């Protein structure tokens, strides 16, 4: 819905310098411009088409910049990682990349069905006062509207459909055949297996803290409803409370949303990739500045990958970070990512075994770095 590959947050200069690699930032159309689905007007995949066009450009031209078209790694965070899952499941992307890094992938958010996307599309046109009686005239009407008006209407629609404890977006990739979580994960894993694409995938320990950080109080009825919807039983609230001593109800809801939106689906993806015959290296990013209310929230790992902390100097989630700790942790993360990009092995500096369902070895980036056997099971003990 928002963002740009041109933002300083995603500047790949330091990554390129350290790894002697070519880093390409990809832009794609966002919101209604990238994912509006309306028959005869747009298919809801314009943003994905942009990414496919960029990857095709890389195949055709990257050698002129010193890159190798046979050694392409795609890397995405959040919506970018979700887009990579779409690419893995799509035949059109076959041969365009050989490895993938998926950071904080919301694998539980399947692409929209055509029916649901059309419902959102109709509502957007209603908000914009577009006459839908003649489909041939809809495009002509939309062309006359200022971009800012369409963005404003998209924001209004997003507000209308938002639900407590859920990430609900009106505009996402529209792929009818992948519109359930189970099938989305299954087909992304199948695509990885068939193409021999290996992955780094992982999540942050408190992903949802940044999403719920502005809440001051919660309706107990809504909390119970969300716990029951996701876990099947109201008493799971107590299990989450025990797991984080001294926690507030907001922290417990944050843990719930983190687990069911990010962590558990990422584990299912890693296991499905293993079953499909390929490999995944799984991580969990646990570090945060001491006393930070955001903890290890969504997006906090990005500057450690790119090494561009100057771009994050005013970002609250990093306030209070100790420079020496940041420097050493950045070195560890980037050596792993670059090792994977260059050789297919992220364990070039600190041993990092491939994820296998029997051991569930997970690299933990925290005050002490290392792999933990069955860390994922420890995280969800008594919950699932």
From TrEMBL:
E.C. number(s) listed in UniProt: 3.1.1.-
- GO MF annotations in UniProt: hydrolase activity
Q: At the top level of its lineage, which domain of life is listed?
A: Bacteria
Keyword Hydrolase belongs to the record: yes
Q: According to its UniProt record, which protein family does this protein belong to? A: Belongs to the type-B carboxylesterase/lipase family.
Q: Which organism is it from?
A: Paenibacillus nasutitermitis
The protein's name is Carboxylic ester hydrolase
Locate the Carboxylesterase type B domain: which residues? 3-364
**UniProtKB keywords:** Hydrolase
Looking up Pfam families in the UniProt record yields:
COesterase (PF00135)
Enzyme category, top tier? hydrolase
